[in-house]
């Protein structure tokens, strides 16, 4: 899978999705190195985010086949990431969507544009019939993004997440191909 698409314009310029490049390292460090970005990310997302972290991540993303994660860009500069990972076996027609955005780009409709675009791509260009997302309890911005994009809150995964030593609930959202 090679996702490369333009999603539209924002006040920051053209928003797009493309494969990662090694030249994204400086932009990756600049966008990822913020405590609020990491607050709702998986533990594998380091903080502080160092240049060596960026290099290791980009090496992994560039060499992965199929490529499950992509660079989210404005004017071809990395500002975040997005991906969807397909299930296997009996869940082979399902995928989990993940995304993150550099702090300075929050609140401008970019995440909504990205989730809508990737969802459309997944349903139109693959056999996927179900997309789901897990959201940490308290991440109201992601809750709103998913609801705006037609995802439905299916339930609460009680005490399913441990982050920074605290055990919290996870919310599960899903969108079904129409």
Question: Could you give the topology of this structure?
Answer:
Blueprint: E1 5-10, E2 13-18, H1 25-32, H2 35-38, H3 51-63, E3 69-74, E4 77-86, E5 94-101, H4 110-125, E6 130-136, H5 140-148, E7 152-163, E8 166-176
Parallel strand pairs: 5-6
Antiparallel strand pairs: 1-2, 2-3, 3-4, 4-5, 6-8, 7-8
Helix pairs in contact: 1-3
Report on the architecture of this protein.
The chain starts with a strand and ends with a strand. The model has no long low-confidence stretch (mean pLDDT 91). With 178 residues, it is α+β, with helices and mostly antiparallel strands. The chain has 5 helices and 8 strands, in the order ββαααβββαβαββ. Strands 1-2-3-4-5-6-8-7 form an 8-stranded mixed β-sheet, with helices on both faces. It has helices at 25-32, 35-38, 51-63, 110-125, 140-148, and strands spanning 5-10, 13-18, 69-74, 77-86, 94-101, 130-136, 152-163, 166-176. The chain has one domain: Aminopeptidase (3-Layer(aba) Sandwich), CATH 3.40.630.30.
